[in-house]
Amino acid sequence: MAESESGQDKTEDPTDKRKRDAREKGEIARSKELNTVVVMIVGAAGLLAFGGSMAEMMMQLMRDNFTITREAILDERSMAIMLMASGKAALLSVQPILLALTVAAFVGPISLGGWLFAAGSLAPKFSRMNPAAGIKRMFSPKALIELLKSFAKFLIVLAVALVVLMKDQADLVAISKEPLEMAVVHSLQLVGWSTLWMAMGLLIIAAIDVPVQLWESHKKLLMTKQEVRDEHKDSEGRPEVKQRIRQLQRDMSQRRMMAAIPEADVIITNPTHYAVALKYDAERGGAPILLAKGSDFMALKIREIAAQHEILLLQSPALARSIYYSTELDQEIPAGLYLAVAQVLAYVYQIRQYQAGRGKRPDPLRDNLPIPPDLRRDS
User: Fold this and answer.
1) How many CB atoms lie within 10 A of CB 338?
2) Of residues 64, 60, 42, the one with CA closest to residue 52
3) Is 3.40.1690.10 the CATH classification of the domain at 257-375?
4) Where are the domains of the chain?
5) 276 pLDDT exceeds 50?
6) Angle, CA of 183, 187 and 190, to the nearest 5°
7) pLDDT in tens, 54-100
């Protein structure tokens, strides 16, 4: 029980990522028995379908090559042409079966597991060259299963062959009494049917082997609970890594925010707990933009930078809190605060005019600025 709770038992179904990784490595279910059966059935069907025409073409080829004139034999050029023509005729005679077998050789493997080309599986594995590992594989349970399958195939093929021979005994005797052309066609038909029946017998092995291969492939991909948790962390991001990334992002954002404070027109404070920096660009138009905001220690840093660059600080606790909670960095203030901020900016403009000697000192800004109830924050 403790072992199971610790996640050491492979009891969890493989995740999609585990399946993808295994497929990229070429680790998918394959059945050699299924491939053999498909090739044998297609080959037998090809013999039954094209055996007659193939026999006629081959016999005609033999007639042509056994009836060469003496002049052609002594003519090197003529013999070369005859050789090329014979090769072409032989290739054409077996072409249908060759094409069918080629298709079967591709269809058999992809019928279980689908099409896959994994370059990694072509790389040499020096671990397989270890004699000790090779001996261990020879006496492994898997090797024993393969031996039993081979023995079962031998018995099935032997049994089917004996049944076919007994059934076709009369035809085999009749072949010896038939003309050559008929005997060749008849022989190909017998070979085709015999191969087909033996392939049908091997279907029993394939029907057992396919589920076994699927089960072994699935069992190999099973995961422990810890592996599932680790993979989830890797895919979603480990908490400590994500926390570190968020911290770095906050640090970068704060550095950019602090660098933008000298461009502010005014700093509105709480006066100690909150501070927000606003800028209004008359040429660009639109509403004032929040360049920086902070609370407690960050508010203190904003006030210090503002003092260094002689930026006006105004105390308006209600407005400072409203802007802090309602506006994100580099965004315009909400429409509900336009009037209140407009009064602040007008006051800033009057202070600048006074400092430049072009006006009288304005009266202190009142703290009862118009702030809508939905944007007001009391704390």
Assistant:
1) 14
2) 60
3) yes
4) 16-116+128-221, 257-375
5) yes
6) 140
7) 888 888 888 888 888 888 778 888 888 888 988 888 888 888 888 88
